[in-house]
Amino acid sequence: MNVVGWFKSGFSARHKALWNYKRGIARAKRRDFEGALANYTTAIELAGVPAEVIAMALYNRALVYVAAGDDAKGVDDLDAILAMDGAMVIVNVRTMAKQKLAKMESRTRKSNTQKH
Fold this sequence. Notes:
This protein is mainly alpha-helical. Helix content is 79%, strand content 0%. It is globular.
């Protein structure tokens, strides 16, 4: 890749989305949930972002929502991943989303049985 191509790639939607995605991860690790949610949302909403980047950002945003106590929004993001077209690239993210939903449902069932 020549210098001009390299420079232009720094301004691509994929590059901007990945930058926000990585920044979201860093913020989530510091428990800056508001900042992480903002970065993941930016990555998801940028035009022209590949499906696999959107799926990864949705998954991580779902984890942050759950960690912040907003299970409903977390479930919405996980469901959005499952509704995405079946690109092979996002199969692993779909699997992780299914596993997370199952864990959340199990936790809810256990919580409901302990209350009764």
